[in-house]
Amino acid sequence: MTAWPNHEDAWRQWRSAMSGARMHHGWILAGKKGLGKNDFALAAARELVAEDGVPQPSGDHPDIMTVTYGPKDKKAVSAQEAGKPFELARSIRIAQIREMQRRLTVRPTLGARRVVIINPADDMERATSNALLKSLEEPPAGTFFVLVTHRPARLLPTIRSRCRILRFPVLDKAQMQRMLGDAGVQGDTQAAISAAEGSFGAALEFAKQDLGPVASHISRLLSEGDASMSGRGDLARLIGGRADRDRLSAIFELAQSIVAQRARTSQNSAERAALVDAHSQLVTLASQAPSYNFDTGLLSLEIGTLLSRVHVASEHSHARS
């Protein structure tokens, strides 16, 4: 498992709570995607359910339950049961919480405690969140909930109020450089580190997906615009007509990061406003993309359009001044 230098304070708080008289039953692990929150959740859950004198399995633990994206539909369920690749649903559904609650009606298997990990909790449907809230309000004896979230503001306020929050800070450049080296990433990693803005997961995905050319083209669209529209087509080709969910997610995170960095350093108020607007629209588009059957090519063109509008706004500002 990856060694995470940004987990020290979270471990201190978790272990302090474990040694207290009454461990809180609900926890939110909050921070950017790619900061090791799921690794922490699994390791912390193992510490919590372990008991002296009770042998603990090295693999899957019967008293640690993870709720995450399930099969998309019946066809995907059949493929999963047959051991074949299957398409994931785009959110955590209420049926999954109902199944989890059904399993919580019996006692833990090995000891007196069990842990339910929900990842990512910010991708629960509203009905799913309301169903989970009932368990958080009246948790079964010995049951603890760990909600992994990249966007805690998307959780219901009633869920947030019933949980203790552990925040995970971003990594500095030296830490990122060491971790990428430990992960076997070779060559120049500076572009990956810069684009990732403290997220090791994002930097690793940058290298894995070979996003250097995409990053350069995003910067070019922001600086030069795309009056001929050829730049948008080039971006679509770089992204790929059959880009999968992981690649599209990495592209969105990369675009948002580059736009945010540029907004922080821009001295042009009109450009800065356009960058802030582009970032907001990229976030919205990224959240909508998993829920709708967007054509990848059209989605790539829409990303390119949002980026190229920044240059147009900047040009108009210069023309008026």
Descriptive overview:
- This protein is an alpha/beta fold.
- It has 2 domains: 5-167, P-loop containing nucleotide triphosphate hydrolases (Rossmann fold, 3-Layer(aba) Sandwich); 209-320.
- The chain has 14 helices and 5 strands.
- The chain has helices spanning 8-18, 37-49, 74-81, 94-103, 126-137, 157-160, 173-182, 190-196, 200-208, 212-224, 230-239, 245-265, 269-288, 296-320, and strands at residues 26-30, 64-67, 114-118, 143-149, 164-167.
- Strands 2-3-4-1-5 form a 5-stranded parallel β-sheet, with helices on both faces.
- Helix 8 (190-196) packs across helix 9, helix 10 packs antiparallel against helix 11 and helix 11 (230-239) crosses helix 14 (296-320).
- The longest helix has 25 residues, at 296-320.
- The mean pLDDT is 91.
- InterPro entries: DNA_Rep/Repair_Clamp_Loader (IPR050238), P-loop_NTPase (IPR027417).
- This is DNA polymerase III subunit delta.
- It comes from Erythrobacter longus.
- It holds the Pfam family DNA_pol3_delta2.
- One of its GO terms (biological process) is DNA-templated DNA replication.
What's the CATH class label of the largest domain? Alpha Beta
Question: Main beta sheet: strand number and arrangement?
Answer: 5 strands, parallel
Q: In the CATH hierarchy, what is the architecture of the largest domain at level 2?
A: 3-Layer(aba) Sandwich
Radius of gyration: 22 Å
| Helix/sheet category | alpha/beta
Fraction in helix: 40-55%
Order of helices and strands: HEHEHHEHEHEHHHHHHHH
Write out the strand line-up for the largest beta sheet, numbering strands in chain order: 2-3-4-1-5
| Strand elements, count | 5
| Assembly status | single chain
- Strand proportion, as a percent range, falls in 5-15%
Task: Count up the helices.
Answer: 14
Q: Please, what is the CATH homologous superfamily of the largest domain?
A: P-loop containing nucleotide triphosphate hydrolases
Protein name: DNA polymerase III subunit delta
Pfam family, one: DNA_pol3_delta2
InterPro entries: DNA_Rep/Repair_Clamp_Loader (IPR050238), P-loop_NTPase (IPR027417)
